[in-house]
Design a protein that fits this description.
Length: 365
């Protein structure tokens, strides 16, 4: 957990204690302030609040409650004599403790299932991931984000090992989408030239249509079980050749961002435009976003990042709702979700992200 995560968690824990100390009317006033903000983005004043509350409370009494809420850091006044808005801590407390999360509608469920089914056409894993990101973006009117292991996102067509001399070979990988990647492999001493042809033929007989991870698991399993028709040196060429494509952690991860234009749909003032500009910069800082999404891979279900709880969103006032997804063998292979302003429709988007992640887990090979 980073420094900003620790600060956010500490503030949330302190405010949680304060929230439990609030009486029923204070909790109701606080809840209405947050709900109004999520719906309109505007501060709400005491007069409007007193009319909306399910209990009889005068505007003066509401102002007193708002003052108490402000003193414990749950709300603030953006301008003098203005209404109140939730602070980041207040918003976090609302999401964690007061938000009523339902289920997605039957229409939304059917749309998600239909889009992910793709009309029955055969698609690669990368197509599934892009479809999931675009669909979440369209349903939420935010940007959809998907992070997956690079090898999960590509299926293989063929591999070739080419002798370079001086104890080295070029390992050439060709994906089904036509992408070609080359890596240099150091050859074991005493390896005959015919071993490269043997390694190429053996590998190609087993990898077509598999992802890199699946190919490695299959071949390494055969070699460990001594079922491979390879001598020890040739087996090393195959395993080390496949291993070279794993690369460093950042190189192995594929980031898909869909629907950025949705983030401009609700820009009402210059400060909103500035917030979106910062958010676009955040999305362009792919390494930082990959690191943030990586934090969610170990989460049990949906995880929510709000505002400056994480340094990536310190300026843009944005929120991220994400969930890890698994492959057919129940291994976590990525994260997907949506990113947008902090006044997201959390109650609707959280179950939507959760359902899509679980559905994707049944569809991804």
């Amino acid at each position: 957990m980073g420094h900003t995560d620790v600060k956010g968690a500490k503030a949330a824990a302190e405010a949680a204690v304060n929230l439990r100390q609030l009486n029923e009317r204070s909790r109701e006033v606080f809840k209405r302030i947050v709900e109004t903000y999520l719906e309109t983005g505007e501060p709400v004043g005491s007069r409007n609040l007193s009319r909306a509350l399910p209990m009889t409370l005068s505007p003066a009494s509401v102002r007193n409650v708002m003052s108490d809420l402000e003193s414990i850091g749950l709300v603030y006044a953006p301008h003098t004599s203005a209404g109140r808005l939730p602070t980041q801590t207040g918003l976090r407390l609302f999401v964690d403790g007061l938000l009523e999360i339902g289920d997605i509608t039957e229409a939304e469920r059917k749309e998600i299932e239909t889009r992910m089914a793709g009309g029955g056409r055969r698609r690669g894993v990368e197509d599934f991931l892009a479809e999931a990101g675009e669909m979440l973006s369209g349903l939420s009117r935010c940007a959809g984000v998907v992070l997956a292991e690079q090898q999960q996102a590509k299926t293989l067509r063929q591999v070739e090992f080419v002798d370079l001399g001086k104890g080295q070979a070029l390992a050439v990988l060709v994906a089904e989408d036509g992408d070609v990647e080359n890596r240099i492999v150091t050859l074991p001493e005493g390896l005959p030239l015919s071993a490269l042809s043997a390694a190429t033929n053996y590998t190609n007989a087993r990898i077509a249509g598999l992802t890199l991870a699946e190919a490695r698991n299959r071949i390494e399993g055969e070699i460990e079980a001594h079922r491979a028709q390879l001598d020890e040196l040739t087996a090393r060429v195959v395993t080390e050749g496949l291993a070279t494509w794993s690369g460093d952690a950042d190189d192995r991860q594929s980031l898909i961002v869909c629907g950025r234009a949705h983030l401009l749909e609700d820009v009402r003032a210059m400060e909103d435009l500035e917030r979106v500009r910062h958010l676009f910069e955040d999305l362009d800082a792919k390494k930082d976003l990959i690191q943030l999404l990586g934090l969610a891979e170990s989460a049990d279900g949906v995880r929510i990042f709000i505002g400056s709880e994480n340094k990536l969103f310190s300026l843009s006032g944005s929120a991220l709702i994400v969930s890890p997804f698994e492959d057919s063998e129940q291994r976590i292979v990525g994260v997907l979700g949506v990113i947008g302003p902090t006044r997201l429709n959390y109650a609707r988007i959280i179950p939507m992200v959760d359902y899509t992640a679980r559905l994707l887990g049944r569809l991804v090979p």
